[in-house]
């Protein structure tokens, strides 16, 4: 059985651990590898490597770090196809979607190439007579990232390019369900010429995460995953005096107004609800048509389109949706569909009926696109994150009802409105209590030079990822006030300094 290891000090590093976790190919259902679940001693090696590299790395000019980042950008572009295949094999998403994820990650590397500009400080001349003040942003030191299974390249790339560009050393703890991508880009980072030790990968589970949380030499943690774990990371990280940004789960609503272009809306909804088998934190899992006529038209068109949804392995170029990540996750999603039925929602399209026919893929973790109508706000399928291809329709009488429903939901990651009316769109953007808002855009993932993050139970901490917020998260502010050279010469001053 292939074994997936750590990456420390610029090389693949076997672990002393006896504990391993299985890695599957979700398209076939077969176990294809096992990943080591690292020990505290493995983490210590990564920390030691980072500590050794940091003095030179922190004091390297941002322009030099930017040149390394440019080389990494080139290597990632050259190897994007191979990286996408690695992702698709362990995650299950179709190859084109995996390539899309890699592209969105590469955009953060492009952003990080601007390190010299991003790290420029501020200067005020003469804050008082002959006294100047300037502020600089300095790296934190060693920072860590703990990432989820659903974007094994993009989510780590929300973090490490910015952390490295700012002069930190970065330790990644990727998801144990699809760990191979991390070793692939670790090798590209090495090839680009980054010093050994500034980027490490520690494979593992809760034990490794807890070791990171408690380690006194790690200054900050970026986390992306489910809400209960995000809350745990935030609270525990804060307890150990770390800076934490912890992004959690989601339940993203899309409002459809009566004036929306229904064909375009249904196309957008299909991709947003069923793309990547619904395993996206920005997937639309609740559609909220306003008015009965809107609901009926939407339902009819959606059911027609769902009948043509092409499900297949990630290697099938025709497939629009692949399998779920593991058999356990498949059971969980099917369990939610059962719950929806017993709670009284109308199961219009039942994905549990789906059987994969393609030879060799019969045992993959597939489920069909599922659609519930007449969902109500007290049902578990509405309140909780399912993280599968299950779309709930909840009918609203008015725009205000729809907005209130979203604002009262526990999560606040992403949302969208489909309308031709500027007034509805503007009011929506203004009133909605959600971090990322789309107007006729179903998955409004901010570009790399803006920042990504939700509100409410979708983010703990106060910094969003990448963009300007990422730079702030990975640096600390120092403000220097200086007087040259005559002040001291005139003798000591015992009065509280004020502006003269
Ligand atoms: P998860 O919370 O199970 O795991 C995330 C990471 O935490 C993994 O690296 C895992 O090893 C680690 N982990 C798991 N249990 C832990 C524990 N008890 N203590 C410490 N660490 C632990 O999430 P997942 O299933 O890998 O990913 C799916 C979730 O991630 C969904 O809820 C999804 O919405 C969320 N997500 C959110 C965003 C966002 O931007 N808000 C983006 C992607 C995914």
From TrEMBL:
Keywords: NAD, Oxidoreductase. It is an enzyme of class 1 (oxidoreductase). PANTHER family: MALONATE-SEMIALDEHYDE DEHYDROGENASE. It comes from the Bacteria. InterPro entries: Ald_DH/histidinol_DH (IPR016161), Ald_DH_C (IPR016163), Ald_DH_CS_CYS (IPR016160), Ald_DH_N (IPR016162), Aldehyde_DH_dom (IPR015590), MeMal-semiAld_DH (IPR010061). Its EC number is 1.2.1.27. GO terms for molecular function: methylmalonate-semialdehyde dehydrogenase (acylating, NAD) activity. Residues 15-480 form the Aldehyde dehydrogenase domain. One of its GO terms (biological process) is thymine catabolic process. This is methylmalonate-semialdehyde dehydrogenase (CoA acylating). Coiled coil: none annotated.
